[in-house]
Amino acid sequence: MSDLSTIIKAYDVRGTVPDQFDERIARAIGTAFVEMLRESGDNADRIVVAHDMRESGPGLVAAFARGANASGAAVVTIGLASTDELYYASGSLGLPGAMFTASHNPAQYNGIKMCRAGAKPVGQDSGLAVVRRRAEQLLDDLNAEADGPSQVEARDLLADYAAHLRSLVDLSGIRPLKAIVDAGNGMGGHTVPAVLGDQVLPALPLEIVPLYFELDGSFPNHEANPLDPANLVDLQRAIREQGADIGIAFDGDADRCFIIDENGDPVSPSAITALVAKRELAKFPGSTIIYNLITSAAVPEIISENGGKPVRSRVGHSFIKAEMARTNAVFGGEHSAHYYFRDFWFADTGMLAAMHVLAALGGQDRPLSELAAEFERYTASGEINSTVADASAKIAEVRAAFVGAEFDELDGLTVALPDGAWFNLRASNTEPLLRLNVEAAKPDRMVSLRDEVLAIVRG
């Protein structure tokens, strides 16, 4: 019996090629995806697909398209694209979509992020479990659907995607800025010249200095995972050596962006969330902004100070997107540098977030470090992982140690202390890990609280 549980996760498909994920499996998932859409009442006559720069992408897309064709769906392929460009295609064309990418994972991986028409996410509880069961049946069935007539149409939407983003954030009037962009040999090397350069649209007051723009799914320079500080070292050095105003790092599929200031210091995703929230509230006064529960306490404070309605969410894009849809929120941000926009079908786009930062920086005269300081009020630990045998028991032990604190269990255990310091401890969905995030007003208080919790977790 086929078992795809190792590669079909809560939000997407992801595995090593070809031992876990191959073209036969991609074909079965193509058929299963179309059948799931039809069963849930969605129009699945056409779907749009794209792939990142990984070597296995074109073959997997072709196999998936055969599977979709076998169940009577035509396929529009936009070829090489970032994940947010696929979301643009799904939103603007009104079609379900499939993006072949393994995001920041190493070269041997590939995967699929699926969405319904209008870039609505497909996760475990919104169709992905059905896709998995049907694909497993197809793989076990010797008489599974034969290939239907090939119905694949190639379209290039890069210029349209770039024009749409430029319509949302006007950069034409900013002061001249020098920006070094590290694409990590990922899809930022494809989209940045179109959106921020003069490849398809008029030039902006930006000098873009490219770092690792060559598309190469073997990642010869460093992994396309800016969450790991080791992968920011080259960008930080280039900023200091070349006197740039800002550095921008994208992950492999360019749906996340990380911002580095003129001194080579990272600007926290919480500060970026607050900065973009302030800009969106100036445009849409009184709107709702979603933030996940391990972003800085400064985020809801700044949203409220600017007349917005802060709404707290669990960690993870499916929860953020569900809350955004429920509340019609204008923007949502996560500690992991995913940024979601109502103007972008409630989907995440690192490029649009980067454009907001460029607009804010270029609309005033201070350096980025001073601008960002407005939004950095507290000291955070960052996420610290600990391997544990029994996550529930450890969480209970930590809770018992903090008598008199305030607790909530929206996502794991959040503990708020009388002096304003807080921490969140939550179990990984996929590994025997506990993830700890700590924040306090002063660095020494953050360190003491962090060490107190870790002593229990690792004791």
Quickly give the structural class: alpha/beta
Any low-confidence stretches, pLDDT <50, length ≥5? none
End-to-end C-alpha gap = 42 Å
Shape: globular
Helix content: 25-40%
Number of helices, where a helix is a run of at least 4 consecutive DSSP H or I residues = 14
The fraction of residues assigned to DSSP E strands is: 15-25%
Annotated CATH architecture of the largest domain = 3-Layer(aba) Sandwich
The overall average pLDDT, rounded, is: 96
Radius of gyration: 22 Å
Query: Which CATH C-level class of the largest domain is it?
Result: Alpha Beta
Mind telling me the CATH superfamily name of the largest domain? Alpha-D-Glucose-1,6-Bisphosphate, subunit A, domain 3
Q: Return the CATH topology of the largest domain.
A: Alpha-D-Glucose-1,6-Bisphosphate, Chain A, domain 3
Describe this structure in words.
The protein is α/β, with parallel strands linked by helices and 459 residues long. It folds into 3 domains: 144 residues, Alpha-D-Glucose-1,6-Bisphosphate, subunit A, domain 3 (Alpha-D-Glucose-1,6-Bisphosphate, Chain A, domain 3, 3-Layer(aba) Sandwich), CATH 3.40.120; 221 residues, Alpha-D-Glucose-1,6-Bisphosphate, Chain A, domain 3, CATH 3.40.120.10; 79 residues, Alpha-D-phosphohexomutase, C-terminal domain (TATA-Binding Protein, 2-Layer Sandwich), CATH 3.30.310.50. Helices cover 36% and strands 22% of the residues. Strands 1, 2, 3, 4, 5, 6 and 7 form a 7-stranded mixed sheet that branches. Strands 18, 19, 20, 21, 22 and 23 form a 6-stranded antiparallel sheet that branches. A 5-stranded mixed sheet has the order 9-8-10-11-12, with helices on both faces. Strand 21 and strand 22 form a beta hairpin. The longest helix is centred in the first third of the chain and has 17 residues. The two termini are 42 Å apart. Belongs to the phosphohexose mutase family. InterPro entries: A-D-PHexomutase_a/b/a-I, A-D-PHexomutase_a/b/a-I/II/III, A-D-PHexomutase_a/b/a-II, A-D-PHexomutase_a/b/a-III, A-D-PHexomutase_C, A-D-PHexomutase_C_sf, Alpha-D-phosphohexomutase_SF.
